[in-house]
Amino acid sequence: MGEGAFRWESGRAAKDCELEVSGLDFGRIAEGKVQTRRKFLGSAGAAAALGVAGRAAFGGEAIAAETVTESRDDVERGNADAAASGEKVMFWVAVSTPCDKNLNFDPELYKDLLAYLKSQGADGVVVLGTTGEFPSFSFAERKKVAETALKNRNGLNIIVGPGTSNFPETIELSKHAEDNGADGLLIVPPFYYKRVQTEPLTKYYSMIFEQVKIPINLYHIPFASGVPISHELLHSLEHYPNLAGIKDSVSDPEVYHHFVAEFPRLNMRTGTDVNLKYALEHGMGAILAEGNNFTKQIAAVFAAKRAGKDIDEPIAKLNAALKLLRAGGVDEYGPMKYALSLQMGTRQFYQRPPNSDVTEEQKAKIKAALEEIKRMG
Asked: Can you give the pLDDT at residue 68?
């Protein structure tokens, strides 16, 4: 497989983005120095992950599931208060899409997963993003997955990822999500053609904005899509009242800080744990793949923020758990889903090719890590 380089503009600063498509490690941003994730969840075809708040919020391990505690009740009360007030500082899980051992979408496990994430303190989920393996599902399957989520939302804000490489299908999936009650959309740029200019990209997104009225977020994941979301593009779309913000999946603090400074009225959601503290300190939300395996820990960070407490302690606990479980490979789909099935106490669910299966070695490490995390409390 080859490598490609492209230049992109983020505010005043120009960055060189290097696309690396060897295995699952998709790349480093800014001259190869900053890795977007420790391991990018997906393969070269995975080009999106979504994220958007509920309509009211768009301002500007087998290890059984743990027992519900009073602290989680506090988290849930905080989440409900946030949703009711239109709070931007909310926590969405970039939710995985469970398949059975025959690699068919498993709607029953999906229902259980959504209920589990809500019980652990998530405010919402992003359906069929990068972590949801959207490129691995057919057009009809994507509609079924979205419908299943929207019919079993359990009080979650639900954002659907309708992005494709062409505008007719993207518009159809967007309207399908809107018609079925989605709270918003997270739309990746058309991801086959690279070096796309701002004007035609504005035209592409405008065609969607003109037909869909629910909140829309743009998805900045250039190491996968090859098409960045620039400041210039966002400014060109600001006249649409349902432009909600972005999800920034680049783990470069400078890039994220520039987004937040330039667009304080939008919800510039971080898509990485690296920028989580900065996002919360500046009134922004987060859409995190890590939310699948670390739901409770991330929810505790948001709960502390809403309560006016110091967030350093819950972030330290989150980082300790991340370090333990990442040793088992949970930044890849197979291990992540295996760990999640253990945490939920359900049968195992699977990822689709070309993503790799969990290995026996990884299973052992995951079980040990989950036991240690459980002891940590």
From this structure: 37
